[in-house]
Amino acid sequence: MSMPVNYPDEVDASYPWYQPLGFRTWTISARHNGKTIVEYSENCKNNHIKLSAFREKLSKEGFVLSPEQLKNMKGKLSIDFVVADCEPSDLRRMCKYCGVETDINKVCKYSRSELDTFAAKLGLQFDELEDVLVKHGNGTYVRV
After folding, report:
1. Exposed, middle or buried, 50 (CB in 10 Å: 0-12/13-18/19+)?
2. Which own/partner contact pairs does 61-65 have at CB distance under 8 Å and 24+ positions apart?
């Protein structure tokens, strides 16, 4: 039996107005029923990693971002690159930063639930992860 999906009422990202572009430390927050459920303002190597960490904290509170909330947050944080288009070395570095397996060939052999967890830790939707596995898996991954 699956658990119901809980979306926060509000999700936002902000930074102190005086911080120049490229040096901003964003604070990402989620509110539900008028209460802040998660706020994340740690300095991270990049905004993709920051959003991934925020989503993990949100998940621990029993919430996930809706597809629209995720799209809006990626826009605010200027996360507009396609992970599958990254160079293999950049992909491995991103995996290392997020604390997940860096060998994509090994990831290609994961079960569906392991792939879901891997995708979540990288801050990817499942279809984005599949694009990565197809492109960088040396032919070992077959789409689910």
Report:
1. buried
2. 61/37, 62/6, 63/6, 63/7, 63/8, 63/30, 63/32, 63/37, 63/38, 64/5, 64/6, 64/7, 65/7, 65/8, 65/11, 65/30
**How many Cβ atoms sit within 10 Å of the Cβ of residue 139?**
8
* Run of H or E residues at 2: none
70: nearest Cα among 5, 21, 141: 5
Asked if pLDDT for residue 54 goes beyond 80, the answer is yes
CA atoms within 13 A on the CB side of 12: 7
Token readout for 10 is 């509000």
104: how many CB neighbours lie within 10 A of its CB?
A: 19
pLDDT confidence bin for 44, thresholds 50/70/90: confident
* pTM to 2 decimal places: 0.66
Strand residue runs (E) in the chain: 10-14, 27-32, 35-40
Euclidean distance between CA atoms 83 and 80, whole angstroms: 9
